[in-house]
Specification:
The complex is a heterotetramer, with one copy of chain A (229 residues), two copies of chain B (80 residues) and one copy of chain C (738 residues). By secondary structure, chain A is an alpha/beta fold. Chain A is built from five helices and eleven strands. In chain C, the strands form five sheets. A seven-stranded mixed sheet of chain C has the order 8-10-7-11-9-12-13. Classes of the chains: A alpha/beta (229), B alpha+beta (80), C alpha+beta (738). The complex binds adenosine-5'-diphosphate and magnesium ion.
């Protein structure tokens, strides 16, 4: 299995992603510069976290127009797995790979802390190693993770089983109280319809090593390797 | 030639910033304020030949970058 | 040669540039009797400002110990450099951005972070951790809330975007900071020892290269502003503050790192306070070179900028590089890839002079050495702070320990800072092994099982009461915090924040604190490798508490042995190490005294350096031997506050033996040199046995377990109540509801 | 009564957002754009009796909360 991590000028979790991917695959991913017009042949692409263009204007808006995004869309259409983490989630929604948008957190502050997520959909290469309804602990670090979609879109996402994770309590309860940032339906991560593209605000790559406080994120990368090799 | 662009959230889209501003204003004693909405205001200079062409160009910018039409509306004015 | 024909320097010009008549006399001397023009006067004024020249503190700073076998580069460069083994170096420094942050908290704090980052990466280090030491006025002061909110989001806004984790710091509130908040930011970076870059220019003819953002009219005279006392009108003056652009900073880091990996750089320096002036002067002066600049080549953001403005602008995110011959094309390519400005703006000469040209015309011509090195140095008169009487515990009101504990856990200076640190990305780079909330932050050295431990500390109320003891205490507390996570403390940076040094009592505080810092550093073999001084922190004659903030750095050789403050399991034995038998509890200047008894008096707890070293080394050895399950040093609030912090972190209570009398002294006294440890029950007596022959006092305090803090007489406080108080204060305060 | 507030950066103050937007627009082929500056646009409802009083009140809001007068200018319009 081969993987690539996209590097935008303000990416800052590109290395974090590469380390986690390498740990699961056993080989380093290709680092691809945002201005490249060709993607290497890979099975799996990570659009990492950071502040791609300083997050000026709207998070991810400018990165969504990078030359490499056209290639990523093309690859995604052909079924290449794409994972957008944090700013990467913002970028791929701005680029239209996923529905909805990410607004400012409801209390407007940047939030960095571990959160509990309830796994909603295990039928995907990303989540196959989790159990349905399992609660995992993964950190967030964002100011704009408030997922918004209009009623019809939201209904469609729910109906088609596209919700990957929701913000929950340690016991797995999903409520307004556990809604970290104001996201509709407590949504922390969503798939495209085919479940080959996943975007999420929390950082699985920063919870893939016990020294960092846990390894719940590792199962995502291990699952992908298992599915794609 | 100059252009001014207003980008505002569509009705029905939650505006956490506007709401926070409204709360803060209430806290400061401005009790009569309501329905605060916050948007963006962008000014720019353009090389376009005439106002109509300029307007078209800026609208194109709005659609492709400046606004996210899932949640935002835009309005363009061109000033000579 | 003046570019401003007939422009005579008036006494008003001299005054508005913050220069004294005497200093102006010295300028005339240096220029051989010729009058400076305005550009030159501006250059003198910033180079001789307190901020750039350290004229009031230099004499005393020279007394600080700066050497150890692991010090690669001490004070004098952009940041200090120490050997941390495996061919690696840690490069770090702390710097203040106090005045700008008071005027515009978000941008002031943000640009403070940007500035200190540049000081570190300019030496070849990739920044791996940010810290911040913050002091605000009384929570009741009408401005405090907005300042806290702006400063914290500014620090986060900048650090989060550049992708350097902000891993720790400190926050204090005191009315003395009502008109002068303190925003001290520290950056720690990591470099290969054979890839460290310095700022001394060499090689006549070598190109002087400007990279980064364009120059605008930002912050002109920022350095002189940071060197003047605030008056009633300062809020009206509204000096231009700089706006930070963390995105550009991120690009600048990456571009510099890429260039540093080649062999193109002869020397490099960031443009900090006094921008182009101080960077070019310092580089030339350190290398004994001259320099010629063609100012029209400086990338400019605005039209019609004058030489004066370009030389004094403090626009952010800019660096000056001396390239080796023939490397321009290579360097230009890298900076263009990162979409940054790149311009050759001059070259080095061997004249020892700085010649400034604008469109071919000479607009300034100054000798470099006399200006950069012969800046004024004052031996300002000072009077020592009168020692205060020792306050006996018996003379302090005793209240029920449970009430006192609740008051303290929820008081502004002890309440959890979670509201602050959750706005900082403390985990980006995926090497943070210990996040905010413990004693020291721990950041893994990438790809190894080793780590750096970092802590910033100062207890200003102690320094006010006794500058010498307070100076010692600040150093020792960082040393203890690093020890408490299992690290070996190596060196410090300092940020000396004081009032107006022209007042002898304030100068006395400066002298006393520096002597205390020096004494502690010498005894602990823990040298000062970098630092910063911020004076004139006064408004209408009211000075801040003297605040010499210390940032300490140490190493952990085996991350598997790292300790945290959290109780790990019920049934562990709790040990108190370092309590001297005779002590009945030091309440003078304690938080118990201030928050519970409503008094701020007495001598602060003395620091016994021999004792500190003995105890700290013993504790560290136990940790490194893997025998400690949790560790916390005791500071603000004393023993029971420390225990409560450990209990809350682990969500496990404890059952404590009778502490003895006087109970308030025993429980809340702030005696120095103490640690609380938990160990496996089976190992406790062995530790006691080992401690005795080496004269280390160890007491068994009790055992962990349950969901309360319980004393032997069965009075108890529940962790749930304590947690609510501890976690509740900050968010409630910031929401404006208390 | 309604008010509209424009908050813009003062001349000479660096506008990192404007700069980044301008670069992105150039990248998208809008070569003729320059001097892009980004500001805020705030709309609100007011209970004030008359337009003059409303304007005064909103200006007061700008000074105390909405604008940072160290680096920003504000302009208030009141619409009945
Ligand atoms: N401004 C801040 N930014 C980040 N972390 C902070 C800040 N202030 C305090 N903290 C964290 O809160 C914890 C408690 O701080 P403090 O009481 O000063 O610790 P100590 O007494 O051990 O020095 C530490 O982990 C510290 O790093
Ligand atoms: Mg401590």
């Amino acid at each position: 299995m081969k993987a690539a991590v996209i590097v935008f000028p303000g990416s800052n979790a590109d290395r974090d992603a590469a380390v986690a991917v390498e740990q699961s695959i056993g080989a380093p991913p290709k680092m691809v510069w945002h201005r490249d017009t060709e993607l290497p042949k890979v099975d799996f692409i990570v659009v990492p976290g950071g502040f791609s263009y300083g997050d000026y204007l709207r998070c991810g808006a400018m990165a969504a127009h990078s030359p490499i995004m056209r290639e990523i869309k093309r690859a995604a259409d052909k079924g290449t797995r794409v994972l957008g983490i944090c700013n990467g989630f913002q970028i791929i929604t701005e680029a239209g790979l996923l529905p909805g948008v990410l607004l400012r957190n409801k209390d407007l502050r940047f939030i960095c802390k571990d959160v509990y997520l309830r796994v909603e959909q295990t039928k995907s290469d990303f989540t196959r190693r989790y159990k349905s309804g399992e609660v995992i602990r993964i950190p967030v670090a964002h100011a704009e993770g408030n997922f918004f979609a209009d009623d019809a879109t939201l209904q469609a996402i729910e109906d088609k089983g596209q919700v990957a994770f929701r913000y929950a309590s340690a016991a797995g309860d999903v409520s307004d109280e556990t809604n970290l940032n104001g996201s509709r339906g407590n949504i922390a991560g969503i798939f495209n319809e085919k479940r080959t593209v996943l975007g999420l605000m929390p950082h699985p790559e920063r919870m893939s090593d016990p020294v960092l406080g846990g390894a719940d994120g590792r199962k995502m990368f291990d699952g992908l390797v298992e599915a794609l090799s | 030639m100059k252009a001014r662009v207003h980008i505002t959230l569509k009705n029905g889209v939650l505006d956490p910033q506007g709401k926070a501003v409204e709360n803060a204003l209430h806290g400061l004693g401005f009790g009569g304020v309501s329905d605060v909405r916050q948007g963006k205001f962008i000014e720019m200079k353009l090389k376009a030949g005439d106002a109509a062409a300029a307007k078209k160009e800026v609208e194109e910018m709005c659609r492709s970058l400046l606004a996210n039409t899932v949640i935002e509306n835009y309005a363009v004015e061109v000033i000579d | 040669m003046t570019s401003v024909p007939n422009a005579r320097i008036t006494p008003a010009d001299i005054k508005s540039h913050g220069l004294s008549e005497e200093e102006y006399g010295r300028i005339l001397e240096i220029l051989g009797g010729r009058e400076p023009n305005l550009v030159e006067l501006g250059i003198f004024s910033v180079m001789w400002s307190e901020h750039c020249s350290y004229k009031s503190s230099k004499k005393w700073l020279k007394t600080l110990p700066t050497k150890a076998s692991w010090v690669i580069c001490g004070p004098g460069e952009n940041a200090g450099v120490i050997d941390i083994g495996d061919g690696l170096a840690a490069i770090f420094k702390m710097e203040s951005h106090n005045h700008p942050s008071y005027i515009e908290p978000y941008q002031g704090a943000a640009t403070g972070v940007g500035g200190i980052l540049r000081d570190v990466f300019t030496m070849g280090a990739r920044p791996i951790a940010n810290m911040n030491a913050l002091r605000f006025g009384s929570p009741d002061h009408p401005k405090t809330r907005r300042l806290v909110s702006g400063v914290v989001s500014g620090i986060g806004g900048y650090g989060n975007c550049v992708g350097v984790p902000t891993v720790g710091g400190e926050v204090n509130f005191h009315p003395s900071y009502n008109g002068n908040i303190l925003v001290n930011a520290m950056t720690v970076g990591l470099a290969d020892q054979n890839k460290i870059f310095y700022s001394a220019a060499a090689g006549a003819g070598n190109p002087v290269v400007y990279v980064g953002s364009k120059t605008g009219r930002d912050g002109i005279h920022g350095a002189t502003m940071a060197s003047a006392e605030f008056g009633a009108d300062s809020e009206e003056k509204r000096p231009t503050v700089q706006v930070g652009d963390p995105f550009t900073e991120k690009l600048l880091i990456e571009a510099c790192m890429e260039l540093m990996a080649t062999d193109a750089i002869q020397s490099i320096q960031d443009m900090g306070a006094a921008g182009l002036t101080s960077s070019s002067f310092e580089m030339a002066s350190k290398g004994g070179m001259g320099v010629q600049l063609d100012l029209e080549k400086v990338p400019q953001r605005e039209e019609g900028m004058t030489p004066y403005e370009m030389m004094l602008s403090e626009s952010q995110e800019r660096m000056l590089i001396i390239l080796k011959p023939g490397k321009e094309a290579l360097a230009r390519k890298i900076f263009e890839k990162w979409e940054l400005d790149f311009a050759v703006i001059g070259h080095l000469t061997d004249t020892g002079r700085m010649v400034l040209k604008h469109h071919g015309e000479v607009v300034g011509d100054l000798p470099i050495d006399p200006l950069a090195q012969a800046s004024p140095e004052y031996d300002r008169p000072w009077v020592a702070t009168e020692p205060l009487p020792v306050l006996h515990a018996a003379d302090v009101t005793e209240v029920d320990w449970r009430d006192a504990l609740k008051t303290l856990m929820g008081c502004p200076d002890i309440a959890s800072r979670r509201w602050v640190w959750e706005q900082y990305d403390c985990i980006v780079m995926a090497d943070t092994a210990q996040r905010p909330g413990g004693d020291a932050a721990v950041v893994r050295i990438h790809n190894t099982n080793r780590a750096l431990a970092i802590s910033t500390d100062c207890t200003p109320r102690y320094v006010k009461a006794d500058p010498f003891e307070g100076g010692k205490q600040a150093v020792v507390e960082t040393w203890r915090n690093i020890t408490a996570v299992g690290g070996k403390p190596l060196a410090i940076t300092d940020n000396l924040n004081f009032g107006n040094p022209e007042k002898p009592p304030i100068m006395g505080q400066i002298v006393g604190a520096i002597e205390g810092i020096g004494a502690a550093c010498s005894h602990l073999n823990y040298p000062v490798v970098s630092g910063n001084v911020s004076l004139y922190n006064e408004t209408n004659g009211n000075a801040i508490l003297p605040t010499p903030a210390i940032g300490g750095v140490g190493v952990i050789d085996d991350l598997d042995k790292m300790t945290t403050v959290a109780f790990k399991a019920p049934g562990d034995v709790i040990l108190l190490i370092g309590q001297k038998d005779t002590a009945s509890g030091w309440l003078g200047q304690s938080l118990y005294l201030r928050e519970v008894a409503g008094r701020e008096e007495g001598a602060p707890p003395p620091v016994d350096l021999k004792h500190e070293k003995l105890i700290g080394d013993f504790v560290r050895n136990l940790i490194q031997a893997g025998r400690v399950t949790a560790c916390h040093d005791l500071s603000d609030g004393g023993l029971v506050v420390g225990l409560t912090e450990m209990a809350l972190a682990g969500n496990i209570g404890c059952l404590l033996n009778d502490p003895g009398v006087p109970r308030h002294g025993r429980l809340f006294g702030e005696d120095q040199g103490r640690y609380v440890l938990t160990v496996k029950a089976a190992d406790a007596t062995a530790i006691l046995r080992e401690a005795e022959p080496v004269n280390i006092p160890v007491q068994m305090l009790g055992v962990t377990g349950g969901k309360d803090i319980v004393l032997a007489d069965e009075t108890a406080v529940s962790l749930a109540d304590l947690r609510q108080l501890h976690e509740g204060w900050f968010p409630t305060y910031m929401s404006g509801k208390n």
